[in-house]
Design brief:
144 residues; alpha+beta; Helix Hairpins; two-stranded antiparallel sheet; 4 strands; rod-shaped
Length: 144
């Protein structure tokens, strides 16, 4: 391996590592979204099963909940985009959340697959770079 090829291989390895960091952050965000969707779905199911006047625990974020009395359980507001919420029935909201969860799950699966592929490429390239350095060390020691 020539010097410029070695430098190029190291630059590619650095690029792989940055891609892995970005994919890891994306996977963490997707997992957090999936956790939020699961909590929302479970809350909506509890609300659907409740009767007016029943008390339910309502998640407010940061793993915190408040006790609330159910007043109207026919409609809920669902965020469908940036600063856009629409009124849906509980069943429509649950379906919407399940669909979003499926999308998140698929995207997470794709991110994990990409990470696996890049890790494999990075490991192979790391091994090739290490072998080149060893060969150069041996050549330097033999040349002394």
């Amino acid at each position: 391996m020539k010097d410029d090829e070695l430098r190029q291989a190291m630059a590619v390895l650095d690029s792989y590592n940055k891609q892995l960091e970005n994919l890891n952050r994306q996977a963490q965000m997707l997992q957090a979204s999936m956790d939020d969707l699961l909590r929302a779905r479970e809350t909506l199911k509890a609300l659907k099963d409740a009767k007016e006047g029943d008390e339910v625990l309502l998640p407010i974020g940061a793993s915190s909940f408040v006790n609330v009395k159910v007043a109207d359980r026919t409609k809920v507001l669902v965020n469908v985009g940036t600063r856009v919420s629409v009124e849906k029935t509980i069943d429509e909201a649950i379906d919407f959340i399940v669909e979003n969860g499926n999308d998140c799950s698929e995207t997470l699966k794709n991110a994990v697959n990409a990470m696996t592929q890049i890790e494999s490429l990075a490991n192979d390239l790391t091994l090739a770079i290490q072998n080149e350095y060893r060969a150069r060390q041996q050549n330097n020691q033999q040349g002394l």
